[in-house]
Amino acid sequence: MKELAMAPNGLSGRLTVPGDKSISHRAVMLGALAKGETRIRHFLPGQDCLTTVKAFQDLGVRIDREGESLLVYGQGLRGLKAADKALDMGNSGTTTRLLLGILAGSSFASQLIGDASLSKRPMKWVSQPLAKFGAEIALSPAGTLPATVKGHKLRGAEIQLEVASAQVKSAAIFAALAADSPSTIIEKLPTRNHTEIMLRQFGADITTEADNLTIHVQPGQELLGQEVEVPGDMSSAAFWLTAGAIVPNSKVTLSRVNLNPTRTGIVKVLEQMGAKISIEQVPSKGEELGNLTIETSQLAPVKLTAADIPAVIDELPLVALLAACADGSSEIRGAEELRVKETDRIKTVSQELGKLGVEITELPDGMIIKGRKNWQVKDDTLDSHGDHRLGMMAAIAALKSDKPLRLANEDSISVSYPGFFSDLEKLVR
Ligand code: S3P
Predict the structure, then answer these.
(1) Beta partners for 291?
(2) What value, to the nearest 5°, has the Cα angle with vertex 189 and ends 186 and 190?
(3) 419 — alpha (psi -120 to 50), left (phi > 0) or beta?
(4) pLDDT higher than 80, residue 388
(5) Residue-level pLDDT at 286
């Protein structure tokens, strides 16, 4: 149980947030599939990314830590070796889904297992599109982990994805890379494109049409080891952006945050809500970077629909918290994927903010949130439910409380932000 900090005098200061989780996963994966050495700087040492590291070590890839850098000694696209036990995916949906795409085109069989939460999450989203490339993936009768992948040569395919998911898209791209002919993958809505950007850096032949939906993959190109500088994670910066906006007397700057437009949905939401936020672009060789400054703001309500969701998918618990502080009623729709994240985030967000007196109406695909001026604490023990983003959202909400609050199951936060509480201490005045 963790006693949560309050911030009656506000927040101030500057932080460099940890490396981006999605990009850290992909850097390890591409490093492992490339020929030669890949050095990853500002790698995120969160539990999920360490799960990816361990999985590739189990698949025979040497990966060393050197300070805060990671060195991956890739053996090329066909260099992975069968693991001598089931690969443990822990809590990581990204590791699981992307690895299914990679292992489908390998020359051996693999088994994937996960923790209780991950073992409830849908994997048919991935196995079905991969089957179009000829992949053989067996799942539990519920369509979940454990999974058995019978790796073999794949064929090129033209596929239309039914779920807007970067994880599913990335799995399909990996399968396409191992296929015997070119493939086309068409997305439902544009989702984060870190896989495509990084694959191009590693030398793959992958192009995206101007619609930002149609991706062409030409297999056969050898990937070459690279230097990767992981930018700050917008999804981690989002906690401080939210805190800065809702806690009176605050001004916070976040340095070197990834500004890839597929990830900046939270900045747009804050702007739409009238938050005082400014962006200073920083020169970068890789993905776009910037410094973000936010100040305490009067917030207007917001309405999000399906097209808005992919760029803010991981920040929706924070959008709910911002909406809970806005002047009026906000609505999130088209976000049914929230039901199958680390927890059912529609349910758990409503439950936890409900403990602070916030009125939320659950919808099948989102929620309606009624803003209020101050919290009315009905239960002083908040719970992460084992969901990192929910635990951090609760800790941010507590900053605004005039009564001490506690957090149960705070350990889950290390999944994506091991230094979260020490960063929080740095900002409280
Ligand atoms: C991720 C994609 C998103 C996101 C997850 C990480 C990725 O999931 O929620 O935290 O790294 O590709 P979906 O692709 O399922 O929306």
Answers:
(1) 280
(2) 85
(3) alpha
(4) yes
(5) 86
Q: Angle, to 10 degrees, between the axis of helix 47-58 and the axis of helix 93-104?
A: 30
The yes-or-no verdict on residue 248 having pLDDT over 80 is yes
Higher pLDDT, 225 or 220: 225
Q: Which of 25, 163, 192, 412 to mutate for ligand 1's pocket (most ligand atoms within 8 Å of CB)?
A: 192
Indicate if 314 belongs to the active site.
yes
Does any ligand 1 atom lie closer than 6 A to the CB of residue 38?
A: no
pLDDT confidence bin for 375, thresholds 50/70/90: very high
The pLDDT of residue 111 is above 90: yes
Residue whose tokens read 């399968």: 175
User: pLDDT tens digits, residue range 319-334?
Assistant: 999 999 999 999 999 9
Catalytic pick among 58, 308, 314, 383: 314
- How far does the centroid of ligand 1 lie from the alpha carbon of residue 94, in Å? 6
Give yes or no for residue 167 CB within 6 A of ligand 1: yes
Share of the chain above pLDDT 70, in %: 100
Number of residues that make up the chain: 429
pLDDT digits (tens, 9 = 90+) for 275-320: 999 999 999 988 999 999 999 999 999 999 999 999 999 999 999 9
Probe ligand 1: pick from 26, 28, 167, 195, max atoms within 8 Å of CB?
167
What's the mean pLDDT when you consider all of the chain?
97
Adjacency order of strands within the sheet including 147-150: 87-88, 109-113, 147-150, 136-138
> Quick one: pLDDT at residue 396?
98
Burial class, 84, CB count within 10 angstroms (exposed 0-12 / middle 13-18 / buried 19+): exposed
Amino acid identity of residue 172, one-letter, is A
Asked if 413 and 48 count as a contact pair (C-beta separation under 8 A), the reply is: no
